[in-house]
Specification:
- The protein is mostly beta strands.
- Strand 9 and strand 10 form a beta hairpin.
- It is elongated.
- 28% of the residues are buried.
């Protein structure tokens, strides 16, 4: 029997941003059983995409075990509410994980 850890991932997106600004979003990984490399993706969904079905940008990052990593800068060039979603790849000792669309800390209002 193989026991695998169940990590969680979350984004801490800014709640508001000015139209035409670039933002960076911290991503938190927790519940990793060991400090091994985990690959994560931060996906951005545009205004009106409340179900997170069509990503308009993806940032790929990695880190060793639990903690935080910050995305590269992403330009927000249209007004509205953007959604962010985090995905972590599975490994030999842990399952994959993803945040929920619309979860706390995952939306940015651009004005």
């Amino acid at each position: 029997v193989k026991v695998r850890g169940r990590p969680t991932v979350s984004a801490a997106a800014p709640p508001t941003a000015a139209l035409g600004s670039s933002v960076q979003v911290p991503v938190t990984i927790s519940g990793m059983p060991f400090p091994m490399r985990v690959d994560v993706r931060l996906k951005l969904y545009g205004p009106g995409d409340t179900t997170c079905s069509n990503a308009i940008s993806t940032s790929s990052m990695s880190r060793l075990g639990n903690g935080q990593v910050v995305s590269g800068s992403v330009l927000l060039d249209a007004a509205g509410v953007y959604s962010w979603k985090v995905e972590a790849d599975p490994g030999d000792l842990w399952q994959g994980a993803e945040s929920l669309c619309g979860a706390a800390g995952s939306r940015t209002q651009v004005q």
